[in-house]
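Running co-folding for flavin mononucleotide.
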Amino acid sequence: MSSAPSGSPAPSDLFRQPVIAAPMAGGASNPRLAAAVSEAGGLGFLAAGYKTTDGMYQEIKQIRGLTSRPFGVNLFMPQPRISDPSAVEVYRQQLAGESTWYDTPLGDPESGRDDGYEAKLAILRDDPVPVVSFTFGCPAPEVLASFARAGTYTVVTVTTPDEAQAARWAGADAVCVQGIEAGGHQGTHRDDPAADGTGIGLLTLIALVRDAVDLPVIATGGLMRGSQIAAVLAAGASAAQLGTAFLVCPESGANPLHKQAMTNPLFVRTELTRAFTGRPARGLVNRFLREHGPYAPAAYPEVHHLTTGLRKAAAQAGDPQGMALWAGQGHRMARALPAADLVDTLVAEWQHTAWQGSEPPEAAERNTAWQDQEDPAGDGGPAGTGRTAAVGGREDS
Ligand SMILES: Cc1cc2nc3c(=O)[nH]c(=O)nc-3n(C[C@H](O)[C@H](O)[C@H](O)COP(=O)(O)O)c2cc1C
């Protein structure tokens, strides 16, 4: 593997194992989950999306009380208005039956579209955290430069090589390459209905992005097993980011019905849908998605605001058929392990795959910085990946 590009620091000090718990807004990511992953040698993330600025700050204070290891905070980029107001009004009328069924009024679609971006930036600049990542767009170069001055490592989610080039141009330290397999929202920089159905699978996207930019790659989408982590590292990623796999951990704050649905044989398929938020997001196919997905408009965050109350009411009523059950394509492989055990298991599986057929080097060698991509041993590394993987145990063990 080639070394990290000049001028772009590799995320060397951020984690001992190349396993990142994806930021998951809506409750799944919380300080307990993120701290457990960071303590286990991976990198935990807080999700600031949908939170108040104070809510974000309180979570940062909490995680600092739980771990001294690095962690990340993820922000939603403000969204331009792309919707036709009359399409939102039509969708509001189409959801009237849901409002009656759940005995809950629909929300105000104009409840805000910037997710408190500027205020959250101000907090993160005043009191820097180790990593900040962005989704739904690319921040201005000045914003990324200000984080660089503060010593914060920045990551921009991308779903195409063009978006990766935009992130490179703006000065991001790394890109989070999100395949079409991913659970939750696609982090596309612009929601373009004309691009529906053109999403790229993770392994192909990693190769395309690596051809386009010389930034470290964090791979995400559908990763549930260490063998898949081995595959994305072999393809050139510096780390793997997993959402659905961590969503079911006991520390995750996801609704228990959401966790159970991942392996419930009632839910066999996932689909990208605008039904819940107006922006394509992958979830388990349930009644709400089936009924409203076909005509839901491209109108984020208006549709998110419209349906928030309905989704809460469905959860309170114990009805997963009305909830947004975000899930990646690998959901059936979810294992409800404590987060630290899941990190250990994933690392063991990754090593097993990567070192098949060759002797792992001694522990001392293995503890060299895993992202040193020069292959000093000259042996091509595990299974021809060219990696000198850090496979040391947890620091506390
Ligand atoms: C419940 C849920 C919430 C998510 N929320 C966010 C978020 O707030 N910010 C973000 O950048 N990505 C979010 N994602 C996407 C993840 O960062 C990641 O790309 C995705 O989970 C990877 O696919 P996987 O779930 O198959 O591992 C979310 C995913 C899920 C499943």
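Result summary
The radius of gyration is 20 Å.
The first strand starts at residue 19 and ends at 21.
Job closed.
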